[in-house]
């Protein structure tokens, strides 16, 4: 059986938590919190993109030094034609044969 001191201590602890929750409820703005979370998500995504670009640039420069070979850039040799066919099928457009000046037309 708990003593009177333990019961009072437990009740004071619950009161302390209730007052803390009340203070948070009165002072916190859910819209402001949601905005902070959105900003943090955008910041984290941007930082991740910048880190990815920087690491690719660094590894592109280090690859020849470490291996003695040129860095493997781009797609494998057989991939462009297959990728272009998939792209045309997915987007419903035809790419022009000029390469730099890609004309697009609706596929009938």
Structural account:
This protein has 108 residues and is mainly alpha-helical. It has a domain at 29-70. 69% of the residues lie in helices and 0% in strands. The chain has helices at residues 4-27, 30-67, 79-91. It starts with a helix and ends in a 17-residue tail after the last helix. Residues 97-102 have low confidence and may be disordered.
H/E series: HHH
What fraction of residues sit in β-strands? under 5%
Q: N- to C-terminal separation?
A: 85 Å
Query: Mean pLDDT across all residues, rounded?
Result: 83
Number of helices: 3
**Secondary structure category:** mainly alpha
Using only C-alpha atoms, the radius of gyration works out to: 30 Å
Helix fraction, binned, reads 55-70%
Q: How would you sum up the global shape?
A: elongated
Instruction: Count the beta strands.
Output: 0
pLDDT < 50 stretches: 97-102
The biggest beta sheet is recorded as:
none
Give a short synopsis of this structure.
This protein is mainly α and 108 residues long.
Give the helix/strand layout.
Elements: H1 4-27, H2 30-67, H3 79-91
Quickly list its features.
108 residues; mainly alpha; 3 helices; elongated
